[in-house]
Amino acid sequence: MKSRKMRSIKIGTHRISPEVVKKVMCMANNIDESVFENTTRKNEVVFIRHTYVYLCRKYSGLGVVPLGRLVHKDHTTISYILDKIDFLNGKDDYITELITNFEKTMFHNESFNERPTKENKKEESIFTL
Length: 129
Fold this sequence. Notes:
Elements: E1 10-11, E2 14-15, H1 18-29, H2 43-60, H3 64-71, H4 75-88, H5 93-108, H6 110-113
Antiparallel strand pairs: 1-2
């Protein structure tokens, strides 16, 4: 069975893939990337993973089945996660802070507003995965 490549949609001048969402979310909220592979059920870690799924859906345009493959969950679980985070976005301070920090870092940080070109390409750029 062939594996399908994940697609990303174009927002402004940026293409946002799940890998970029993960990196920016880690940078914006001072999170270690190992949290996403961790299977712990602590509330903070669960909310981080659920917010990651929500942001991937919002900015990469992936459906519930590819998102489920991404985080090793069933598509019905992904639907539940998306509904839950959408409901909690304005009500829960922690969720709102995770999403706000991501958006500030991604869209209002000058280092992310310019795509790297051949002349100014940096190794630490999040767009060169």
